Amino acid sequence: MQEQRIPIYQVIQDYIKQEISRGGWKTGDQIPTEKELMAKFGVSRITVSNALTGLAKEGWLHRIQGKGSYVSGTALNEGTRGIQEGRQAEEEERLRLIGLITPSLSDYFMLRLQSGIAKALRPSNCHLVVMLSEGSKKREAEAIRELLRMGAEGLIIFPLDSKTHNDEILRLKLEKFPFLIIDRYLTGIETHFIGSDGVEAARLAVNHLHALGHRDIAICSGMPLSTTTIEQRVSGYLLAMKELGEKINPALMLTDFSLKVDGGHAVLDGEAGEDDPLRRCVEAGLATAYIALNGPVALHLYRIVKQLGLRVPQDLSIVAFDNLSPSREFDFFTYIDQHEEEVGRLAGKHILELMNESGEQPYRKIMLVPDIVARESTAPPSA
């Protein structure tokens, strides 16, 4: 028989209702403070506040800002009547909110990730609210605060930067609010995390190209090395080249440039200028194959190849991170499959568990093993 877990906010509400019903607290009595309830149940202030707000709406309590919560005069008559008898039915109908904060929804990677989360939440009474940080730490902090104001009981966060933590994320951790990080974990701060193994992903890309006969393999990121995601992939590239006995050519590590960004995602407009690092590398013929560490860079590189009158894969092979097509029927790029929909599904599953668990839980770090999907953009180098 499967164990049915009761949400912690409901445990707090049931405790208060029972104390009132048995006469432990009478009309006008002040109930324990938020701090006392936090200590008693081992939860965050936000969880306690949400529980008390719900009781106030039901008529059990009235709250006075800066003073506390008091037993309402209706709690022992009308409040106890329909509410207590129908509590289970009401709880089943009550919508619970879960927030997803992400830099953008501009590519198929993020759409698949969101789809996985939505599928995990579908059997529950939870609704997903999506807010975009759009490449701004300020917006990321505002999104966290707004979702909490809306009554979100759990957060899934795709952070902007892994090295400089947002204070709002630190506050969530300190207050033991249910949240988890996806895609790029935060360095120096332990949190629940779900993502794909970036080191193994880059190793798969290098090994695939090497097996085709490529030796001059470039790697390009199009963004600063400020996230653990990019750092992992570069580490995997270096590790694979070393394992294969190939020398590392610093000129083929194109990680010191950034594409134009608007609203948190790369903008691909117009032709690449002569000072574009990728164009210079392709024009000089320094590499026969490129590993693009994100989708926009792969598309930017493909445009450069066409702009210079070259062909993929006849003149140059490209491996992209993430599937750039809406479905596999339209695949052109050989890509690293990070199983983003499964990442999303696991994120949805785990945030529900965190919301329904009482007390502090050991942190979980889940790293999915990626795969490489060979398509048309890679082939042996031309003679």
Automatic annotation (TrEMBL):
Any GO MF annotation of the entry: DNA-binding transcription factor activity
SUPFAM superfamilies according to UniProt: Periplasmic binding protein-like I, Winged helix' DNA-binding domain
Key words, A-Z: DNA-binding, Transcription, Transcription regulation
Domain HTH gntR-type: 6-74
Protein name listed in UniProt: Substrate-binding domain-containing protein
